[in-house]
Specification:
Layout: H1 3-22, H2 26-34, H3 37-43, H4 54-69
Helix pairs in contact: 1-2, 1-4, 3-4
Length: 71
């Protein structure tokens, strides 16, 4: 599977997790994810993050949000 296909396969799961956790619409969750550092890393083939599980990527996103809220 190429990187884009892999990303397209797990992205919906990540977005569903974000929607459920934060009560966002699909569009809001997509925007929140792709404007985050985690989303940028996920979109970058060099990081390999696209190959991780949706739960792992979601966990990184939550850590990022926690760090932002503690500043």
């Amino acid at each position: 599977m190429n990187h884009a296909t892999t990303r397209a396969t797990i992205l919906p799961e990540i977005i569903k997790l974000i929607q459920a956790k934060f009560g966002l619409s699909e569009d809001e969750a997509l925007h929140a994810f792709y404007t985050s550092a985690t989303g940028a890393s996920f979109a970058d083939d060099e990081t390999g993050l696209y190959g991780q599980s949706p739960n792992y990527v979601f966990g990184l996103y939550l850590e990022e949000k926690d760090e932002e809220s503690s500043h």
